[in-house]
Records
---
Amino acid sequence: MSWRDGQRPLDIQRGRVEMAHGAGGRAALQLVEELFLPALDNPALRALDDGAVLDMPAGQRLVVATDGHVVSPLFFLGGDIGCLAVHGTINDVAMMGAVPLALTASFVLEEGLPLADLQRIAQSMGQAAREAGVPVVAGDTKVVQRGKGDGVFIATTGVGALPAGRRLGAALLRPGDVLLLSGPIGQHGVAVLSQRQSLGFETDLRSDTAALHGLVASLLAAVPEGAVHALRDPTRGGVAAVLHEFARSSGVGIEIDEAALPVPPVVRAACELLGLEPLQLANEGRLVAAVEPAFADAALAALRRHPLGGEAVAIGRAVADEHRFVQMRMRLGGSRLVEWPAGEALPRIC
Ligand code: MG
């Protein structure tokens, strides 16, 4: 006898999420065993205990980061909410200089969501996790009534190991630090916006969503420990938000060059059409690094040697400025202040 006796297999092709799938009983276990486990499979998850036990490298500190994902629409060119939820949290752990070890995922599902969509999302998460070598070791599923959610929200938490003596942070910038950007900006923001029919804007631009821990490892290995002062992924709020966070946390000013900013033509066109600022668009596969000037060339070369940093550039530097202004030298001369995104322009972008 097993709990399955008399239970028909889940009809993933035609079925939908039901309230019972979040109730912790047989239906919930069936959803886990037939949909989530095959997609995310790994030994820790398979145990279906209340938590996962992880080995911690001796003498290292734990880094933990968490991120909720509410992107709309759920599927977009170059990705979906599933791989985004894996990449986004791996990247937050990696920006601390830590080696990501594992993720947890908490799903809030809306009653009526097609199981086929949920399977596609779970499989995308599994693929992203396998490619990154960072398994989803624990999870939770809750269901809310039809109309009380928007398909699926996914919160992921990541843990990583921080090597002894390593310290990175937005408060550590010093005047003179060179600011490196790992690639073109705005792709994720424009890829997601272009899927929202109401905007009447179409493009074949793909999201840049990617796990950046390999790029970070290459960068940190190429320079002495401590030469990279801060790393941050310019997601919501874009590069503009990162520069303001750096300036605010460390008490420096920032000067960047408009001519150095890699803005793809299609991103520029979308921004002109929609009245957006490329520096404020979300990216999901880029990083900004603040590097001690003596090691900036080596750091830039290391980024460029990596497949995810082939188009890396130096965009500016930190300067002594008690006002903590973020300024951009314009291509046609003069300079202007870079606005700190107010936040309401691009909801549900990640
Ligand atoms: Mg981040």
---
Amino acid sequence: MSNQIEHVLEETRFFEPPAAFASQAAIGTREEYDRLYKQSIDDPETFWGNVASELHWFKKWDRVRNAENRPFYKWFEGGKTNLSYNCVDRHLDSARKNKAAIIWEGEPGDQVILTYQELHQRVCLAANGLKKLGVKKGDRVAIYMPMIPELAIAMLACARIGAIHSIIFGGFSANAIVDRVQDADCTTIITADGGWRRGSVVDLKVAVDEAAPKCPTVKNVLVVKRTNTAVTMAEGRDHWWHEVMASVDANCPAEPLDAEDPLYILYTSGSTGKPKGILHSTGGYMVGTYVTSKYIFDLREEDTYWCTADIGWVTGHSYIVYGILANGATTVMYEGAPNQPGPDRFWQIVDKYKVNIFYTAPTAIRAFAKWGDQHPAKYDLSSLRLLGTVGEPINPEAWMWYHRNIGRERCPIVDTWWQTETGAIMITTLPGVMSAKPGSAGLPFFGVKPAIVSEEGEDVDAGHSGLLVVKEPWPSMLRTLYGDDARYKEVYWSKFEKQGWYLTGDGAFCDKNGYYMIIGRLDDVINVSGHRLGTMEIESALVSSPLVAEAAVVGFPHDLKGQGICAFVSVPTGMEVTEADKEKLREHVAHEIGAIAKPDQIRFTDSLPKTRSGKIMRRLLRDIAAGNETKQDTTTLEDFGILAKLREDAES
Ligand code: WT7
């Protein structure tokens, strides 16, 4: 950790916002940022009330913020609104009605463009389709889909009628579907026959068929025809999307919902136990994603915006769909892999649709850099005016590559720090106002009051690392963990209960200009390619194999993925394991969780290093996985022999 800090403190490069960009930016001067930031902290009622007033409300709120029952904050209490209305209907009474809302490209190269008016029709049909299947306000709808327009339509249809969607990333396995669907008691699953990924069909329906019988609450499965793959349709349970939509009314007014009515659940990994169902609510999330999109991406009426995330993660929820459409912008959606058919696919898309704003992840940037400068160089990328990154710390080399090869040294880069829990971007530079510093996220967005504190809650000086906390609530914050208020309080609010601060779980430090540099997770969470995975989940998956007695999973630095997964596995006494068993275990984890959780390394060992009280010494394993000499105190280690043995194995 300390090496990394020194490294970044030595980073002296600052990139001023280009004059041409700054002169037209929505927030164009530092004074304006300072004034609005001050207002947002000193008088959040006025600041957030003003932002919310830019959107449509069936009934205005009585109270902007209610902090009476901490940490169960409420925002825009008494207000009635609808996020689907704000993303779609709100744009129909102006020239925007014929503007492209979604430009979609499938991996095979097929294309769909939906204007706001067309999107409205499709969302109304889907909402009526869901109603026809018996879905009501408050019901949970699981969505397990490829990146196709119907995914966005399904979300907006749920939001329209007040059904709570729970999107499950299409790369997760049937077991992961079961866990999530059962946890939320979903009544309906929306899926597709398949999706295209790297030239092959991902059999989504097959996974749903495996999962659904284990989920007694699931009454209906709605299936979009995407790949024309042969699928079995269970009588009475499964329905083709196009058939249902052909049989319903085209008119479906948006339901006026309470600002605090839940909007969606999205599962994310924690240090312990099963994934946590992050619950977001309607009004605050809407206002937060709207205003961050507006100012951080500096959205202009004529912009074409592309975020390359999958909607299965929060980035896609907030910054492909909700925040972007709430602004009436054009959002590009791409189904497939970045290197299909070749490593230039993204640049081809940027060139083809003249994308102006491009938002991706450091892991992708490192892959592009590795694939070579010649790929973006073939394309006209002059339409780009702003770049963004999200998901993990970006190393300055990757930042510079992005700046040179994609931004062609003309485009500001926003490095946006946030979390599934925060709903919207929290720390970033504002592109027209602040210099960017490679590797550093920047300053707090409006209404965000972060701090870096010690374990005891004392402020930490610039240049020293500590725990990143947020001292005041913000509108798009999670409201709870679905069905588990106690865990919500425990995970996020118990550490600094007295002070009422939100614990992010990240370590960070500030430079002398107040720029935040995020170091990474402090808990047992690994950030693989910008996706959060709990070591516990992977360990449980491993232990469910007969080849495994005990497992300890740790992250290690990985050139492309940011962090890789290393599993130390002890085998049952007397069992002989071979190299081939490593692959078996990797496949086993993929089957239990999904390919994303496959360990990069598996190391068999007779036993795991433990303290005398029986705790696995993870930090020590982390050092071994990273190939570092252990600086750790090993005096409490139970059996010194283990350490030497693990090292030998690592070197062999
Ligand atoms: C964790 C949240 C937010 C959408 C994608 C990930 C890390 C996120 C940055 C950034 C350094 C970052 C943090 C955070 N992270 N953005 N710009 N710089 N680290 O959402 O799965 O909820 O993960 O991702 O560690 O806590 P998530």
---
Amino acid sequence: MDLQLSGTTALVTGAGSGIGRAVALALAAEGVRVVLLDRDGAALARTASGCPGALLLVADVTDEAQVASALARVDRLDAVVCCAGISGPVGAGIEDVSLAEWNAVLSVNVTGPFLVLRAALPLLRASATASVVLISSDSAFVASPGMAPYCASKAALVQFGRALSVDLADTGIRVNTVAPSVVDTPMSRGDLGDTALDEAAFPVQTADEVAAHVSYLLSPRSRAVNGTTLLSDFGYTARSGFPA
Ligand code: NAP
């Protein structure tokens, strides 16, 4: 299927690693001119080596001034993909989570997309086919113990996306969310241990598989899809606890 993305321009945050990197490479392969944002400039440069003509923006998505000056360097946008995120404390009960840790997770995972999209909206409004994809998580719907800040942030992101799709309904800008279960990336290997995903007893998806969902949701092929969350969890949440 031709995704009809060739010649468009897309901003990808968190493009230095994991899912953001895979999204950047997948979009570049579709002929998209990518604008890559991350706080790690060296990592961005590694991603950009696979993305001809990429524009690189080194910025922290939680810093209003940095986001504004980064977006000021962009003159056109048809799409934004918000991948930058952190997991925060893993395996910590809420009494052991500091306010600073809580604020850091909410700041990167929720305030970051708010700041980036607010700055990108004037450019998106000028596009005939604008589409936004937020990367949430299955942690918006199910919880692993000891990850309360992350779960709360990812649930907030799902509803932020739904609210934004309603606010922007008259503009033609679509907003959808992808919520994957465990993806093999530096983040999940950092959280679970570097070898925990090798021959794991649970299903693990690749960043390229998530990037394929994102590419479809950015494409005009999905123009009727708006305000939804694509939960890619191998069907885990569909299963009832009823022991039939
Ligand atoms: P990753 O490999 O750690 O990549 C995230 C990238 O975002 C890193 O380059 C990171 O830089 C950057 N970043 C973090 N905070 C930033 C900030 N304040 N400003 C700018 N850039 C920032 O993680 P990933 O697994 O690809 O995760 C991408 C997204 O998918 C996240 O939102 C995550 O919650 C979500 N997700 C991941 C999984 C999974 O199992 N991996 C599952 C579901 C959802 P640093 O390296 O400097 O932090």
